[in-house]
Amino acid sequence: MTEKKRCKNTPINYEIVSREITNSGIANIGKASIREIKRLIDNIENATGEKFIRMEMGIPGLPAVKYGIDGEIEALKNGVASLYPEIDGVETLKTEISRFAKLFLDLDINSTGCIPTVGSLQGSFASFMTLNRMHPDKDTTLLIDPGFPVHKQQLQLLGQKFESFDVYNYRGEKLKEKLESYFKKGNIHSLLYSNPNNPSWMCFTHDELKIIGSLATKYDVVVMEDLAYFGMDFRKDYSKPGQPPYQPTAGKYTDKYILLISSSKAFSYAGQRIGMLIISDKLFNYNSKELSKYYSIENFGRCILFGTLYPLSGGTSHSAQYGLESILKAVNDGIYNYRDDVIEYGKKSAIMKKIFTDNGFQIVYDKDIDEPVGDGFYFTISYPGFTGEKLIEEFMYYGISAISLSITGSEREGLRACVSLIDRKQFPDLEKRLKIFNENYPLN
Length: 444
What we know:
The chain is α/β, with parallel strands linked by helices and 444 residues long. It has helices at residues 14-24, 34-48, 66-77, 91-105, 119-131, 149-158, 174-183, 206-218, 281-284, 300-313, 318-332, 339-358, 388-395, 427-440, and strands spanning 53-54, 114-117, 140-145, 161-166, 188-194, 222-226, 257-262, 275-279, 362-363, 367-368, 371-372, 378-382, 400-401, 403-404, 415-418. The model has no long low-confidence stretch (mean pLDDT 96).
């Protein structure tokens, strides 16, 4: 791909942006982590006084759910701040998590395996640590990409092996052959994917989840399902407790699985760092002699609780557990419908996609098999003549931020754009800046 010559007629001061990029010490902006990009944009905003269209961070842009705040305040008034929480969580919260799994996923999971964690990231970290020690001959996690970059960071930090592939060209029946090519090697102990997918917003169908579940059972692979954007495929309404359609899950087709559910996105409760680690009954009660080499017991559930989560954090914020309990109870009882709030992300996404495509940009992950990908928390963009890594750096001069798809495991060129922090009042600025970009880099 021929590198474009950079234009200096840009909405944000060219010299200041260049200086801040140099001062950041980041060798390749396109490969920078999400947090590195955030810090760089903060510095440019401070230096120029210009407000960016900030699409790099997957941060909720809505107020925290009132039920959580009220529940947490009440718990603090009752003195929980002075007490250590139990490692496996407040019993009433565990009950509500179990109810949530039944009412919104149609899964029967004992509350024993419903564990609050310090964000869903602690849940994935603890799961990786424990799953990797279950089998003497299995030492690898398979990641379905594109995916959340931090999961790879966790595996690298742990020194664990992983393999991955970009799923875009392996949808439908093609997924079976691709997965089996990895599973047949016999070294895969777990499989991780997100649904809806971060960053592409593709969503697996029930048929695809059945393929995943069936093959996982056949090859004794634990399915890890990242449901950070629970119920946020807005093409269907998954928000009615106890009524179909339910949030699609491979848990309907296999019996050894882990669900990672965040309270950050669906409930806008990101600041309290509380997530849900939900372990199927079969896996929670699974015994492995291999585990006793690292833990004092052989039972998976007790190992992950008292052998992994305990030394990681000694439990999850006591008051935040009561906040989450209040949210889940309101949702489970049908008092609060979370979808009514978060559907705003889908509405903004549709508008922003059109602004980009009207100015020459393309949607990278545009299809869910044979239908257009839904509108949600993220979408993906590219521009002819630019690699994703070059485009993200160029955007700095136009007051726009995102992250490169290359750090998500994608095989395609482009960027991930998050809609959450964009105020509708910024749409005219976005349109103006993209128009200048298009004029500076006209398409044939």
